[in-house]
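Regression test attached.
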Amino acid sequence: MNCDFARQPYTRLHELKRVVRHVEDRVVLITGAGQRLGAATAARMMDEGWHVLVHVRSSVEEAQALLDRAANKHGQSRGTLLVADLTVDADLERLVREVKDHPLVTSHGLAGLVHNASFYSQGSFEETSLQTYRSLNRLHMDAPYLLTQALLPALELAGGSVVAVVDTSWGRAWEGLAHYTSSKAGLRQLMLNLAGELAGRVRVNCLAPGAIMAADWEVEHFAKVLEKVPLGRSGQAEDIAAGIHFLLTNGTITGNVLHVDGGWSLNE
Ligand SMILES: NC(=O)c1ccc[n+]([C@@H]2O[C@H](COP(=O)([O-])OP(=O)(O)OC[C@H]3O[C@@H](n4cnc5c(N)ncnc54)[C@H](OP(=O)(O)O)[C@@H]3O)[C@@H](O)[C@H]2O)c1
């Protein structure tokens, strides 16, 4: 029998699909995983025994420290560091090659793909340039589109799934955030569409954090936001990590947007 899965067309891959049985053979790529919510998710998945492809753009030292901590804790390497600017085509293509060529991905496929990388800034509509708008679309929509498409055979091979980290901002107006919220809404719709189109091949879900971890520029605004959150507090990065782990491992959930927001979306 020809075992070169990578060269099989999708239909054949589908027939050959198998669920990876040993947790240590499960590989997840998490974008923007060097700091904050992405790093907490990478740490959680490594604790759960998965091998994490920790993608960063600039947080190389932080990611290396994260990988070292996990290796010390578990007595063996639990991840691999990958560096790419997701708004640069050549970087994206290299990242795809590196993921596909990873020995665990070659042998077991990719069990998880988490689109987490983001850039959050505020600026009025009149002041925000088309260049900034395009850059956010590249980061929040083009990169997830290309990564999901290019890694689909590897995801199918592992019986894997995709999670996009979106935002509770969907469907409402936010001061000075049109460029951010519109690209996140596009990502949400892309994922929901793919959940339908790829059903039976790869599960696709979204996780929508509420006010979890303030950006440096919004500390004051963040405190005001918390007054509107029914639970009256921000969540923890670990709550996001737990939600992503849940979506990656529950084999019956697809096309879902899991709000981890203390009920904030009820009040807006
Ligand atoms: N924090 C919250 O309370 C909150 C609320 C709602 C939604 N979210 C969503 O949850 C996710 C995680 O939130 P966060 O606050 O932890 O995110 P973040 O710190 O704003 O961004 C995560 C990472 O994205 C990477 N990134 C930025 N531009 C990039 C580029 N051009 N190419 C590749 N990577 C790039 C950065 O990597 P480097 O550091 O390596 O440069 C950064 O560490 C995001 O998708 C965010 O939109 C967060």
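Expected vs. actual: identical. Residues 32, 34-38, 56-59, 85-87, 116-120, 139, 165, 167, 209, 211-213 surround NAP (CB under 6 Å).
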